[in-house]
């Protein structure tokens, strides 16, 4: 992966991608496989090192299979397609139907693996760099496609632009595109931590309920650091 020349103030490509996370990088890999010229910008200061997402769903695994990196990720990930519930300290139920009943997919499970690992694998497939510490200041349509202005003073003209800058997308907001759907009323605190416990370690999502409500979830991890979700509100 090379580096961008910071001197040009205007360039033309087939595809501009705003956001260098898994969605943006996967889009770039697929576009490059089709022979398209691509320019990627991302607001963070470099490749992700820790944190963020911890699982790949069934559909995402199929896309990564197309790119040729899924087998590599399977070696470092943990498959999970079962969840168990404990109520008032006692085992209550176990289910896997949500995953095993998924239609039209070869991977009926989550693959528990850190987002930084996924991004690193995608970056290794790219023959172009990511322009980090760069944000889009405006996105407009032209007669031939789109025009993106950046905080570096660069103008990028392209046939298409993909806004892959997350759930709080500034691009979507600037274009007045609504984010439809609903969100849960509960607010969870996320803890990345080491745990000393006699609770059996298993590749399942474990939920602990109190007074009939889920209060703590233990998410399986591929490394010694455990992910624990604690209900903070709701």
**Molecular shape:** elongated
**Poorly predicted parts:** none
Termini gap: 46 Å
Report helical residue fraction.
10-25%
Q: Which class do the helix and strand fractions yield?
A: alpha/beta
Number of helices: 6
Order of helices and strands: EHEEHHEEEHEHEEEEHEEEE
The radius of gyration computed from the alpha-carbon positions, rounded to a whole number of angstroms, is 21 Å
Classify the beta-strand content into a percent band: 35-45%
* Average pLDDT reading: 88
Q: Biggest sheet, in brief? A: 6 strands, mixed
The strand line-up of the biggest sheet is 8-2-1-11-10-9
Number of E-type strands:
15
SSE inventory with pairings:
Elements: E1 10-18, H1 22-33, E2 38-41, E3 55-56, H2 58-67, H3 70-76, E4 78-80, E5 83-87, E6 90-95, H4 97-100, E7 110-112, H5 115-125, E8 130-131, E9 136-142, E10 145-150, E11 155-163, H6 170-174, E12 187-193, E13 205-210, E14 213-219, E15 226-233
Parallel strand pairs: 1-2, 1-11, 2-8, 5-13
Antiparallel strand pairs: 3-7, 4-7, 5-6, 9-10, 10-11, 12-15, 13-14, 14-15
Helix pairs in contact: 1-2, 1-5
